[in-house]
Design brief:
Length: about 400
């Protein structure tokens, strides 16, 4: 992956701007953040305030360029995820499949993970889920920190057990999030500026809606592709309708997860991770934007699921792995085909988004079935001929 990052400009790797995100955009934001303010007037700034410390962190490694320091810190986050998954996999009832899945799955995205800060965000979500059954407080705290950096890690809290665990996890999430936000608001101006930029997002060409519009260009639809808000988006008739439909589907995804939470009656040690993967998959496929780095999140969550022998998400993890491999072809290798909406580009998007949609549907149905009361394992019963202890004052009874 490091070698690919060094030779990223070669024609065989297609789109050559993978590393540019760091040495041009992140470095520019670093200069703004270093002056105590978020880039409020930059339409490309669409991230919560917790992203600020992550983008400032390369300053902790003097002697390196910003790009070099960023990559080193990303590798450190990758190592932390691997170590956490490996440690979890050695516990009783656990498996090392999760650590192997992450280690072998991440390079399917080529050098992209080293040039985005999504590995750092995924590390917070992974650690949150791995602490879920042992410390609801840490579970909530790490999820809140992740949400402050890139929002989606708040979804990992949907699988927390109802009752005391829910109260503890959400209380600590709220307290941690409020405290961290207060500190960031005291240190930086305009901490909530990202909300204004998010509202203007359109339909990105790699989204599910974008795939439909890309195919529509071959049926005479007159829309075009433009660079807006840091992504290639469609503009033209009906784009607003597709964007609103995507938001409606996202609301439906939230409703489905809440319905699952209300109806789930049986839990396993894998339930928090299984529910997290299902929720993030549903929100990914219904989003107006599906950037290739979103696959980093899904690989990390699927890896956590695979650390448990009780998980119901093994087939889903295979689909995510296949989607990651296709995503690397979409971006950066043949991204020019995707932006031009050629038949090759459209076919790639149909395959990649088809895999993600299938994974989302299967993930939700499997987590639903795994947590139904009528699928719970029967309570232990006395075996015919076994001796069952009776009260101290009475004789032993035979069944």
């Amino acid at each position: 992956m490091l070698w690919l990052l060094v030779v990223a400009g070669r024609p065989a790797l297609g789109w050559g701007g993978v590393g540019r995100e760091v040495w041009r955009l992140y470095h520019h934001w670093y200069g703004v953040l270093a002056h105590g303010t978020f880039p409020a007037h930059d339409p490309l700034w669409q991230y919560p305030p917790g992203a600020g410390p992550v983008l400032l962190a390369p300053a902790l490694l003097p002697g390196l360029t910003y790009f070099q320091a960023f990559v080193v810190l990303t590798l450190a986050a990758d190592a932390a995820v691997t170590a956490a998954l490996a440690r979890a996999g050695t516990r009783p009832g656990r498996s090392l499949r999760g650590a192997a899945y992450w280690t072998c799955g991440l390079p399917l995205l080529l050098h992209l993970p080293l040039a985005r800060y999504d590995v750092q965000v995924t590390a917070l979500a992974v650690i949150a889920l791995l602490t879920a059954t042992r410390s609801p407080r840490a579970y909530g705290a790490f999820a809140a920190l992740g949400a402050l950096v890139k929002v989606w890690p708040v979804l990992v809290l949907l699988g927390v057990a109802r009752g005391r665990d829910t109260r503890s996890a959400w209380t600590w999430a709220a307290a941690t999030g409020a405290t961290a936000l207060a500190v960031l608001a005291a240190l930086f101006a305009h901490p909530l500026a990202f909300l204004r930029q998010q509202g203007g997002r359109g339909v990105q060409i790699e989204s599910l809606g974008g795939t439909v519009l890309g195919l529509a260009t071959h049926a005479g639809w007159p829309g075009t592709v433009r660079y807006r808000y840091g992504a290639m988006e469609f503009t033209g008739p009906y784009v607003g309708t597709v964007a609103r439909l995507s938001l409606l589907l996202t609301g439906l995804a939230l409703a489905l997860m809440l319905l699952w939470r209300l109806r789930a009656g049986h839990r396993t040690p894998a339930t928090p991770a299984d529910a997290a993967l299902s929720a993030v998959l549903l929100f990914t496929v219904t989003s107006r934007v599906i950037s290739p780095q979103y696959l980093i999140w899904l690989l990390g969550l699927a890896a956590v699921c695979l650390t448990s022998r009780h998980t119901a998400q093994r087939p889903v993890a295979v689909l995510v792995l296949a989607a990651a491999a296709v995503s690397a072809v979409v971006y950066p290798v043949l991204y020019d085909q995707v932006t031009a909406c050629t038949w090759t580009g459209c076919a790639l998007m149909v395959v990649r988004n088809g895999l993600l949609t299938a994974a989302a549907v299967r993930s939700y149905t499997r987590v639903w079935r795994a947590t139904r009361l009528d699928t719970a394992p029967p309570a232990p019963r006395g075996v015919r001929g076994a001796v069952v202890p009776a009260p101290a004052s009475g004789p032993r009874l035979l069944h």
